[in-house]
């Protein structure tokens, strides 16, 4: 009997939108090298591995190249799969123990709300190499970092959408990735963003939940709002609702499973 394997599009309500993640339900603990090999084979931005434990589920995330500390869209996909596959009750919380602590997901009126740690910017950076890698955008407003990523604010949405970074230069930067953001021109959204992480095997991530753990406190301070809606302006695109709750961030999204099967190689 193979291991259940799902492909789920996260932060979207339609198939082939948002950010696809593979979700594998494990029957026992597996070696990191084995999980990395599976993630490399899946060749999606993230593969989530779920193992039932006493208080919930052990959750680990792998890009095609490395294991990561925090991932939003694969957590959303994992929770969606657990409910859809009747692994947990329809009104039950999805509880995950991860490298970033305990995370929970709840169903909220057709959306899934994830309770994640806030990852606010912790200080400015020397922008030289970063801006060179981004193509030296002329409309720079701010440049900071948190524990995982660089954050760059540009003057407008058009500048964010027009970026064509040098991925080789970005991959040499000593951080997981780079968040680029601006105010949204669309009244439905408070801000837009893009996320680049070639150093961990993802040139541009379609929709990045963990980046919104930084974007939420950043824009909350600038806009004087605690509840906002972000749009990640990748080719696929996706909508993320954010709500800042002290040192936590509630991330809201939807998900669609597009494939179900089995991992036949053990």
The CATH H-level homologous superfamily of the largest domain? Diaminopimelate Epimerase, Chain A, domain 1
CATH structural architecture of the largest domain: Roll
- Roughly what fraction of the amino acids lie in strands? 35-45%
What is the number of independent domains? 2
Tell me roughly what share of residues is in helical segments. 10-25%
Distance between the termini: 10 Å
Overall pLDDT score: 96
Poorly predicted segments = none
* Radius of gyration (Å): 18 Å
Overall shape: globular
Largest sheet: 18 strands, mixed
CATH domain fold name of the largest domain: Diaminopimelate Epimerase, Chain A, domain 1
Structural category is: alpha+beta
Overview of this protein structure:
By secondary structure, this protein is α+β, with helices and mostly antiparallel strands. The chain has two domains: about 5-115 and about 250-265, Diaminopimelate Epimerase, Chain A, domain 1; about 125-245, Diaminopimelate Epimerase, Chain A, domain 1. Helices cover about 20% and strands about 40% of the residues. It has six helices and 18 strands. The chain has helices at about 30-40, 70-85, 130-135, 155-160, 165-170, 210-225, and strands at about 5-10, 20-25, 45-55, 55-60, 65-70, 95-100, 100-110, 110-115, 125, 140-145, 150-155, 175-185, 190-195, 200-205, 225-230, 240-245, 250-255, 255-265. The protein has an 18-stranded mixed sheet that branches. A hairpin with a 2-residue loop joins strand 16 (about 240-245) and strand 17. It is globular, with a radius of gyration of 18 Å. The model has no long low-confidence stretch (mean pLDDT about 95).
């Amino acid at each position: 009997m193979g291991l259940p394997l799902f492909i789920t599009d996260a932060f979207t309500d339609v198939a082939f939108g948002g950010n696809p993640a593979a979700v594998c339900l494990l029957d026992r603990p597996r070696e990191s090298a084995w999980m990395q090999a599976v993630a490399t084979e899946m060749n999606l931005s993230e593969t989530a591995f779920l193992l039932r434990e006493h208080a919930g589920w052990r959750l680990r995330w792998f890009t095609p190249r490395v294991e990561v500390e925090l991932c939003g869209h694969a957590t959303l996909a994992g929770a969606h799969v657990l409910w859809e596959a009747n692994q947990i009750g329809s009104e039950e919380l999805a509880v995950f123990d991860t490298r970033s602590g305990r995370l929970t997901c709840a169903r909220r009126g057709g959306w899934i709300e994830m309770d994640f740690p806030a990852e606010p910017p912790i200080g400015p950076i020397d922008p030289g190499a970063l801006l060179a890698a981004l193509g030296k955008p002329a409309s720079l407003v701010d440049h900071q970092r948190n524990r995982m990523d660089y954050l760059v604010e540009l003057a407008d949405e058009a500048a964010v959408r027009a970026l064509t970074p040098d991925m080789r230069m970005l991959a040499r930067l000593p951080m997981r990735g780079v968040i680029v953001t601006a105010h949204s021109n669309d009244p439905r959204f408070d801000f837009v963003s893009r996320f680049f992480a070639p150093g961990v095997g993802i040139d541009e991530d379609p929709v990045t939940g963990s980046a919104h753990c930084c974007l939420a406190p950043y824009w909350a301070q600038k806009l004087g709002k605690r509840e906002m809606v972000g749009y990640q302006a990748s080719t696929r695109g996706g909508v993320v609702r954010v709500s800042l709750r002290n040192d936590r961030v509630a991330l809201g999204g939807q998900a669609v499973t597009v494939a179900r099967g089995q991992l036949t190689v053990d």
